[in-house]
Amino acid sequence: MSHALAQRAVPLLTPELPGTGGLVRVAEEDFSVEELPLYEASGAGEHLLLTVEKRGLSTPELVRALTGALGASDRDAGTAGLKDKRAVTVQRISVRTGKSPEQALQLAGPGYRVLSAARHSSKLRPGHLRGNRFRIVVRGVGPEAQARAEAVCNRLRALGAANLFGPQRFGKYGDNAALGEAILLRQKQVRDRFLRRMALSALQSELFNRCLAARVADGLFSTAVRGDVLKKRATGGLFVCEDAAADTPRVESGEVDPAGPLPGHSFFAARDEALAREQAVLAEAHIDPACFAAGGDEMEGARRPYRVPVEELAISAPDPEGLALTFVLPKGSYAVAVLREVLKTDVAEADFSA
Hints:
Elements: E1 31-37, E2 47-55, H1 59-69, E3 77-79, E4 88-96, H2 101-104, E5 108-109, E6 112-120, E7 129-139, H3 145-159, E8 161-162, H4 176-184, H5 193-217, E9 229-232, E10 238-240, H6 244-253, E11 256-262, H7 272-284, E12 302-305, E13 307-308, E14 311-319, E15 322-330, H8 336-343
Parallel strand pairs: 1-4
Antiparallel strand pairs: 1-7, 2-4, 2-6, 3-4, 5-6, 7-15, 8-13, 9-10, 9-11, 11-12, 14-15
Helix pairs in contact: 3-8, 4-5, 5-7
């Protein structure tokens, strides 16, 4: 096994602007995230759609507590996403149960409380959320921190954030992508389906990060390249860039975003210059696209925008030595994409997905 898949850092978008420094996760209350629902409860059906606040609990631990209290099994529960344990989080959970919404509203236990409950017609599925609202407090900053943060945030409001995968994606020891490579090369057999899927996904994530890193390094973050796969923000539709000069203003305005590869054997292909750039990244990582077929259904591939908008971005000062950042990111994006630009320090320990 080569060391070609050591994690590749994505360059900063604002390297010339000084950061605030500081510490995150000093207390659970300093890190909060709230799911933004994709739809409201239908009002009828065999499922309860719950909004739950938790702290000090993982999402699976919360699910077990709720299903136990509602007389249901874990198979009867559905979630839109996983939320961090060391944080205060608000998320939706569905449970198929005969209990009433009024009974569910009485539920509370160590580390959680039910905020709302209503009947719904179907089970909540992964990805069934619009995005996440973050509030992150940075401690131990100096008097110039707010002005520095404002300068960086002004750039992010205009540019968007690099839609990178954070360190958590690659496992505690950062070796999940290398395991994914070994699976594709048939150097290792992994029978555990969850571990196999996680490793192959980490491999795709690392290759995406490398394509994104090359894009930023070459000054192509907010411009179109001939052959790019472009994604419409309003509809999610994909199309290939035929004329970079014509499509670059659409990228700059935020109408569309270049979408990089989560490589696989069956996904929307780039062409021309954009395809050559993606192939160069695979070649540098010593990955032969022919091996993707060994991943089966778990390695079909997909497209992910290189850039995401940072909405409702605001800064406040809860105390003389602290800053609070609030912002909204689309589902699947990482808070570290914003934190690393503002702090300009290693924030891997603060990283969690949305």
